[in-house]
Amino acid sequence: MKLPIVLVFQMLLAITLNAQEAQKPVQQWTTHEITLTSEASYTNPYTEVEVWGVFTNQNNDSLKRPAFWNGGNTWKIRFSPPDTDVVWQWKSYTSDQMDKGLHGKTGSFVSVPYTGENGLLENGLLKMSKGYRNVVHQSGKSFLVVADTPWGIPFRATKEQVEIFAKDRQKKGFNTALMMTLQPDMKAEGPDERNTDQGFKRAFQDLSEGHINQMNPDYFQYYDSLIEVLLDHEIVPVHQPVFHGFGWKGKQVLGTKINPEEYVRYVKYLLARYGSYPAFWLIAGDHDANDPGVKESGEMLQLWDCYQQPTGLHYNPCDDYVATWAKNDPDKHCMHYNKSHQAEEWLDFQWAQTGHNDKHLYHKVERMYQNLPTKAVANGEPTYEGMNAGQNGLGWWQGEEAWMQLMHGGTMGVVYGAASLWQWKVTPNEKGWEAWTDQPLSWEGALKLKGSEYVGLVGKILHGLDMTDIQKRWDLANGKPLLAKEGRLYISYLNEGGEIQISNIPNTLNYRWVNPKTGTTKLFGKAAKATFKAPSKNPWVLIITEN
Predict the structure, then answer these.
(1) pLDDT tens, residue by residue, 334-365
(2) Which helix (H) or strand (E) element contains residue 213?
(3) CATH classification of 129-462, choosing from 3.20.20.80, 3.40.50.720, 3.40.50.300, 3.40.640.10?
(4) Residue 494: pLDDT above 50?
(5) What is the pLDDT of residue 12?
(6) What superfamily would CATH give domain 24-115?
(7) Where are the alpha helices (DSSP H) in 321-469?
(8) How far apart are CA 189 and CA 258, in angstroms?
């Protein structure tokens, strides 16, 4: 008997729905973790075996995720479904196909809508905007980086301390945290303990010997808990693998001399462990980005990061000159012009560094904004508050720096730092740093410095605005600072108030003047005229929008 086509369709639909109901539900953009147990024994599992999983669905989508060794005979694969109401099937693969505990394992689950309240997960993982000027969520919502630099958290901080940090920074308006994933100085010494004078946890037992092959899995299990705290407070981690410049105490950093194969392996491990969460990959830290394994890691991320989260470089201060501290030292890598690997497809963003001499230097970001092909840019390291024994970059200096770097083309976002906080000093008088990089505060004391409030306010004031691919358009304002998406959004920062005249503004838009030191609005109304006068001769931010 021939069944009616409608009945056949209903039967197939019922079978499909029943199959989905039997699957484990995994909410979109949350992490589904798969555990594999090896049947073989390895001398060094971290270096001897590669494991990965391939995820496919009924729409013929296929995503590949590397696995990571978690100690003993355990490997894990972490996957974040990018869709909803779809059945995903997975299969594991390994370089040792004889190990049936790792190779050929299968499973399935169904993706379902996210029901939580975390804004990061609600909008999806990060990616670059279509114009490459800044970052957006997978949902398309813009993500303006407002970053702090607690570089020492992974190897110095406790979970309880990171709770304090994350709560404070989220409240102030920060959404990003730059971190050295391990202590990079080969000659650094101290107890193998967190929150201890001179102490730091070891990610690899052989780092002091110039290698990263002997991994301590418990280090990364604890790092998991720190990442969880940051993400719970909607702060995205910036994972820097092995630093290339000053490092933690300036004691022979490993990044300049590392074996390229070891560097790439470690970056891939970080991708496996943290790549299913919101993340940035900062694969060069404080140099010219031509150190061993950097280019190769960028190429690896392009191949293996199925979510294509942002990958970038962070340069040292000497861009087109040789600094006095770099003379006669080829390892200092000057003359990079802040544009190494400019044309590489894997490169998404570049961060300048202006050093810590209490100077506002805007030309670096301005030049980077003009480089082609376009990459998102920012000043990733201005003078940290309290550098030079508590003298440099204090208070409002930080606010002015952030707003002006933004106006000069650093449209990816703004970055803040504080002496004592970046080292994660346990006590105000903990020894080990020269005066130029130190101040008599603990990490918790530095957390309260006034400058962080001003930088955080950048995020609060611009919150909710669609900054996607906004452009530097001083030409529309007779040379005065202006960012614009013509006809829709205009943002100007005037350090001494005064007037600004903007060309071709639709009179249907609305304007408001916001005090960048308090976040309060002073004047607002319809943009009926092309000339806007600030409420006073103090710093003001002008925002002109459609609503």
Answers:
(1) 899 999 999 999 999 999 999 999 999 999 99
(2) none
(3) 3.20.20.80
(4) yes
(5) 42
(6) Immunoglobulins (2.60.40.10)
(7) 363-370, 387-390, 396-407, 443-446, 450-462
(8) 19
